Amino acid sequence: MRRFLTTTVLMLLLTNANTVFADAQNADSGSNNTPLQSSDTSTAPPSSSGSAFKLFAGVTHQELLPQAHESLQPHLDRQAKAPVAPTRPPVVQKPILEPERTVSVPSITQTQKTLVDTVSKPALRAPALNTEKPITQAYEPAFGVARLTADRTAPRALPAQHYTIEWFMIPSWMAGVWLKDGDMTTNVTDLRTGVSSSQNEWTENRMEASWGHLQDAQGNYWHVNLLPSERDGNSAGKLVRFVTVAQKCESSTPQQLMTRTHYVVSESNPWNNQPLDTFQQESLNHYVRGNQNQLLNTSSDRVFTYQGAPVREGHLVSQFAKIRQFTPVATLNGVDLRTSLNDYLQSHALGHLRK
């Protein structure tokens, strides 16, 4: 770079010298041809092709190099230093949008493994307790933490639920699980006015009924009621819960079964579970075997207010279809049913049927 700048300066000086020299010659030819005299009044010898080319001051090219280098040195030194940017108002640059990046999501297997490692290898949050040192008191005031001790007392057992247990025999064909879709009301009597009306009105009332829990030594089927008991159903677009508070077998033969049941019934809105009504109901049900392996139930239902005032009486006919066969039940609500049935048979002079 320095050599290039030096050569450029020398070329400019040479051009200016030739111009001055040509002007001097023209001036001499226009005057009385007076020769150009130097400062020492000596006449310059004519140049020849073998001698060095002289500049306008009578200095050769080689003799001018040191002087030119000395003149250019300060300029070259300034360029060697870091340039200072001129003071300009700040330029607001447009934001450079980064290209879209693809985020790699870990696989489900890696995520599960990480979760398993985190759960199975949790970080220690506190130094481990010294288990070799026996704990003498259940409460440490320094920490206020209850500690387990060897002289602790066993937890107090909660009182067990007490049920009224009632066993009765059912027809063998009736054992199993049955389903009905609704009831057909044939007659309704208003018990407050005594007005009765005949009608055939279908009411949706979907419900499952399971009959039979165990068999005795001779293969008879027995059903048990643990009272009180609950079951849920749907009737006329409402949620219905039946709480059975009493049930008695009125008659049982190989062909039919008759029971009397006392319920507390609560109805609620299926959308928000808002209570709609609560009342009592007494049902006298007569079960017989119908055609095509069906269970027919003819019932007489009396409805009372929750306080016990009679409201109405209705006669209904329901039809059940068998959906599952009989399966023995060993325990129910924590009660050993086999022991309970054997005790019942023994106490009712039917010990020969124990199994």
Our count of helices gives: 4
Give the amount of beta strand, in percent: 35-45%
What oligomeric assembly is this protein in? single chain
Model regions low in confidence, pLDDT < 50 over at least 5 residues: 19-57, 131-149
Q: Residue share in helices?
A: 10-25%
The CATH topology of the domain at 170-353 comes to: Porin
Cα Rg: 59 Å
Mean pLDDT: 73
Spatial order of strands in the largest sheet: 4-5-8-9-10-11-12-13
The major pleated sheet works out as: 8 strands, antiparallel, barrel
Return the structural class.
alpha+beta
Report the strand count.
15
Shape: elongated
Order of helices and strands: HHHEEEEEEEEEEEEEEEH
Sequence-ordered SSE layout with sheet pairings:
Layout lengths: L1 H29 L30 H20 L27 H13 L18 E2 L4 E2 L17 E7 L5 E15 L5 E16 L2 E2 L5 E7 L1 E7 L2 E15 L3 E13 L6 E15 L4 E12 L4 E15 L6 E2 L2 E2 H11 L8
